[in-house]
Amino acid sequence: MTLDSFKREMRDDLSFRGKLLRTGRHRIHPYPAMLHPLLVDHLISRYAVKDSTILDPFCGSGVTLLQSSLNGHASIGLDINPLALAIARAKTASYDADLLKREFRGIRDCIFDSHPDDSDVPAIRNIEYWYKPDVIRDLGRLRFILQHNRLTYSDFFIVVFALIARTQSLTKSGEFKRYRIKGKKLLLAKNEVFSAFLSHCHKMVEAFTNGAQPLANSRPLYANSEDHFPQHLEYGTVITSPPYGDSRTTVAYGQFSSFGSDWIKGLEQISLYVNVDAAGLGKRSPLIDLSSFSVLSEILARIAEASEKRAKDVRYFFNGYFKALKRIVAQLADNGTICFVVGNRTVKDISIPLDQITASFLQTLGVSIDSILVRNIHNKVMPAVNSPTNERGKTSRTMHSEYIVIGVKR
Ligand SMILES: C[S@@+](CC[C@H](N)C(=O)[O-])C[C@H]1O[C@@H](n2cnc3c(N)ncnc32)[C@H](O)[C@@H]1O
User: Fold this and answer.
1) pLDDT tens for residues 286-328?
2) For residue 339, which of 70, 78, 56 has the smallest C-alpha distance?
3) Is the CB of 280 within 6 Å of ligand 1?
4) 8 A C-beta contact, residue 37 and residue 92
5) Does 95 contact ligand 1 (Cβ within 6 A)?
6) Distance from the alpha carbon of residue 84 to the mean position of ligand 1, in angstroms
7) Is 69:122 a contact under the CB 8 Å cutoff?
8) Which is nearest to 24 in space by CA: 7, 40, 11?
9) Is the CB of 82 under 6 A from ligand 1?
10) Which pLDDT score, from 0 to 100, does residue 365 have?
């Protein structure tokens, strides 16, 4: 098989230039590598099996789930990141507008009446390095309020709280990994915990109650698609965007989420805790034989010439990826459709054609490949540069195209 054995089709109409990535309920909390809602709408209208349940086995913040629900499809999402699941739950829930507004007013009153000593600061490593003392105190006061109010819509408020815990920390905005701000920025960082929380809640109450409402049920579930894929799930369509590589050199979802996760841990349903970056695709697990995939073997050999260690990381990523695909396809209904949105990254200056490898994995598993659509991405939430060689200070621009692998289970 050559590198281009599955044909690609450039689709300018899917670049959605000038169309915001985060609109409506998706504004409640940013998430790395979010799918574009308009792309999901397109995939649903063009490829979803009529009336089918849609599965997203790497659902992140639940763009597929919400768009499925807005388009009248039931959906199931799987992820290992508790913060992502909380965002997905908050976005996809049905809200009684009056009750949500009442709960918001109740929390606002509690903030105004709150006593500085009523604070619940969880144990967080190096907390003083990442937050100024008055910010720690006020985040603790907000947490205390959320802890002591019985809320029907706790996920909504917890997710806004998680966002404020991140934006009020001393980490650089626009970075997924933790980097502390320095110099003037550090001196000027202001405590806006309460005002930022209230302002974002206010905007989101408007967005959630005035915007389009979900028409079908969504189930975001905690599950590892590689080795704890839930049995007996039934679905006729898969729309997903998996990680593009291991978390060390692509997106560290756990590290990005850690500011919020540290603060929401122990609140309501947020009880499952895992090291997201260690548990995600790319973890060390028993190796399966993938030597029949010639494109992958060739790429691994070329990376190994530059670094045995990096080749091993990539090998483990594809090991987990294949296992997950196997389970996803096995439980997909016959004639069900599958849409995988992927990016082709570079490791040691070698481009990894994840679209081609995905197509060859799927084909082996009984999916006939319909097409690979290519779209330019203008507004994906990705760092502007990454470290594909994993060497400090050495960076390259991240990808500018997304590939959508589409197939049908035969
Ligand atoms: C590209 S992101 C998905 C973003 C999502 N489409 C959105 O719009 O927010 C990939 C997701 O896969 C999750 N993930 C990584 N390894 C996983 C695994 N083995 N099982 C389930 N989820 C996993 C990560 O936590 C991350 O949320």
Assistant:
1) 999 999 999 999 999 999 999 999 999 999 999 999 999 999 9
2) 56
3) yes
4) no
5) no
6) 8
7) no
8) 40
9) no
10) 98
**CA pair distance 68, 368, nearest whole angstrom:** 24
Compute, in angstroms, the gap from residue 242 CA to the centroid of ligand 1: 6
Q: Which domains does the chain have, with CATH numbers?
A: 8-80+215-246+281-409 (3.40.50.150), 97-210 (no CATH)
Pocket perturbation via mutation, ligand 1, pick of 43, 59, 319 by most ligand atoms within 8 A of CB: 59
CB-CB contact of 346 with 245 (8 Å):
no
Polymer length of the chain = 410
Q: Which atom of ligand 1 is nearest to the CA of 57?
A: 21
Confidence of residue 247 (pLDDT cuts 50, 70, 90): confident
**Amino acid identity at 172:** K
Residue type, 352: I
In this prediction the pTM is: 0.94
Q: Say how many Å lie between the first and final Cα of the chain, rounded.
A: 22
Taking alpha carbons only, the member of 55, 62, 53 closest to residue 93 is 62
Q: Is the CB of 325 under 6 A from ligand 1?
A: no
Task: Calculate how far, in angstroms, residue 244's C-alpha sits from the geometric centre of ligand 1.
Answer: 10
